[in-house]
Design brief:
By secondary structure, this protein is mainly alpha-helical. The protein is built from six helices and two strands; from the N terminus they run αβαβαααα. The protein is globular and about 50 Å long. One of its GO terms (molecular function) is metal ion binding.
């Protein structure tokens, strides 16, 4: 394995897209199961900012073209945002009981078309640069705490 050949023993994967989460977790589990001397950690960066998200994000369901994502874009790369296209999500509801966007407690794969009429969850019109900054900085602070310990 290339990781072993390069004498690396610890790796961290920072995920920025929720749709990748299960694939990354499976890959990490498989690799570390086969190569016991390698440690791999992964994280969905927004899960590292729970306080900022709880404080600022008021939509019951969010996660795609929502006030959280758009706030982060306003902070990190405002030049890519088409502000005239921002809309409130038209959430249809979850198709089954106990199902959630994050897959807890019951995981049923879904497409955005099944959950929203316009592709958006949450309310992008409530996005603000300051919210994005708060989320990103909390995530970075928490990531630094983790990585300092993990990389020892």
């Amino acid at each position: 394995m290339l990781l072993k050949l390069n004498n690396r023993r610890k790796f961290f994967i920072l995920n920025s897209h929720g749709g990748n989460e299960s694939t990354i977790k499976t890959a990490v589990t498989e690799i570390t199961g086969e190569y016991r001397d390698i440690k791999i950690a992964s994280a969905q960066y927004t899960k590292l900012a729970p306080k900022a998200i709880k404080k600022n994000i008021k939509s019951e369901v969010f996660g795609h073209s929502c006030e959280r994502e758009v706030s982060e874009i306003l902070y990190l790369a405002p030049h890519i945002l088409r502000k005239d296209k921002l809309v409130k999500g038209e959430f249809k509801g979850m198709p089954y009981p106990f199902m959630s966007i994050g897959g807890d407690p019951v995981n049923v794969p879904y497409t955005l078309e099944e959950l929203t009429s316009n592709g958006a969850l949450g309310d992008a019109t409530k996005a603000a640069r300051e919210i994005g900054e708060e989320i990103c900085l909390e995530a970075l602070d928490n990531l630094e705490i983790f990585l300092r310990k993990f990389m020892e």
